[in-house]
Amino acid sequence: MIDLKNKNILIIMPKFYAYQAKMKEDLLDRGANPHFYDEEPEKTKFLILKNLESIFHKKNVFDKFNRQLTQQILAEAPAGGYDYFLVIRGNVLTEQTITEIKEKALKPTGKSIYYSWDSFENMRHKGEIGELFDWRGTFDSVDAKNSDMGYELLPLFYSDEFDAEKLEPVEEYKYDYVSVSAFFPFRYRQFKAFKEANPDKKLCLKIYLNPSVYRGKKLKDPKLVKNLDMDIISFEPFTPEQIRDMVRNSKAVLDLAHIKQQGLTMRTMETLGIKRKLVTNNIYLRDYEFYNETNDLILEDLETKADEAERSGDYSAFTLPGAEWLDQPYAEDEDIRRKYSIHSWIDNLFK
Hints:
The protein is an alpha/beta fold. The protein has 2 domains: 8-154, Rossmann fold; 162-335, Rossmann fold. The chain contains 13 helices and 12 strands. The longest helix is centred in the first third of the chain and has 14 residues, at 43-56. The chain is globular and about 65 Å long. The N and C termini lie close together (9 Å).
């Protein structure tokens, strides 16, 4: 493990589930002094600002936030400055903010690090902000391959809660397939198709639908949320522990990424960590060293198949593998698996 003892580390990143807390835990265990600042502390307000920027082409809607963030960071910086300056995503940060923090808060011998926790296409700066840093990495294999900005590929991680070596083995599985994720119309539609096509299998397909999002959909697109299948939909979010236990008690995980997503989801990495089989629609899984046909199955053109299934009533295209695949022993490679723990991920960030 890289030595970060007594190192002062400045981190600007979004609050993304419990992953910020997991990072902080690892850094504290190493004896580091991490200082976190939220990239978007007011989610609703920032969403409104992004819409204003998009509709009225206002390029300075986040200037006030950037000024306040810069002032706060400089006022709270430790004596002597920071040893590391890490930005994850940085979707609303300006070049001026990055430059001023580097000049005034980072030690002359300090290192600046940028990590793209999203595909370039989904960010306002399209990855260009990364060129302001000493090192830049991305979770997206396509962006790493096609970009001329010097990005290195660094996939996401699994935390200790999903480390199979730290969990008691399961003697009898409760489910054949589990999937827990946030609401998107495509995902809900496909979950219903999988449910229709696999009555012989034990499925646990759960989608969290935020009540405020539900109310908005009910006004704007009532057909979309009419007669919801409450076996699939939950208005209560699932805790990390609940998700971990559902995955742990299943033979395989079904992970449906957004059609525009190229990088691997956190759920993919957690499935690797906990040694469960994976069925996904992310074709880019084949780019990674841990892809293995014994463990992983890639489904393609699910939207086209859903159109045809709804038209014809034939959902056979959504039939999931049975015992012949599920009960085949998991192909293990412990050296590769350990490379994707949160501890290895942090080593690679700060190396």
